[in-house]
Design brief:
Shape: globular
Largest sheet: 5 strands, antiparallel
Number of domains: 2
Strand content: 25-35%
Order of helices and strands: EHEEEEEHEE
Number of helices: 2
Helix content: 10-25%
Mean pLDDT: 94
Radius of gyration: 15 Å
Number of strands: 8
Length: 161
């Protein structure tokens, strides 16, 4: 399995002042050092560094299951997450919400669950063993903010709008 960052074209568009999923430019804030998970590098934005707040809809088209919500991005260019394993931003909360989606980007009922951070990789892998699932989204268990999409090794995640 592979945890993936947001689509690089979406991130570049936001950093260049382009519209987010709500058609608005991103807001700028300064990180206090924690609780500012960048959805590109999948690390917290370092304390004192500027970051962008924008709306993202991590689905290729509008449809009932295409949730839109706030996300953070490093304002300065960062290296998109390419490593193996669970990214740093998914080790700082006690638990996370996971949901499995089919190839047509619909939630597969029965796959959603709040899981402990230490169980995240195992629970995602269990869901990805279901051939009817195309990917699993990881979200904040507290605020429902999108964190990362997890796909099987070799699969490409859908574009983010």
């Amino acid at each position: 399995m592979k945890f993936t960052p947001l689509d690089a074209a979406f991130v570049a568009r936001i950093r260049a002042g382009g519209p987010d999923a709500n058609g608005l430019p991103a807001e700028t804030a300064v990180s206090t050092g924690g609780g500012t998970p960048c959805r590109s590098c999948l690390h917290d934005v370092p304390e004192g560094e500027e970051f962008l707040i924008c709306a993202a809809r991590p689905f290729p088209t509008l449809q009932p299951y295409a949730e839109t919500g706030p996300i953070f991005l490093c304002k300065a260019e960062c290296v998109p997450w390419q490593d193996d394993g669970v990214p740093p931003i998914m080790t700082t909360s006690p638990d996370y919400l996971i949901k499995g989606y089919t190839a047509d980007h619909r939630i597969r009922y029965g796959t959603g669950q709040v899981v402990k951070a230490g169980d995240l990789a195992r629970e995602v892998q269990i869901r990805l063993s279901d051939p009817l699932l195309a990917y699993v989204d990881v979200r904040s268990a507290r605020n429902n903010c999108f964190q990362s999409r997890v796909v099987r090794l070799g699969d490409k995640p859908p574009d983010i709008r």
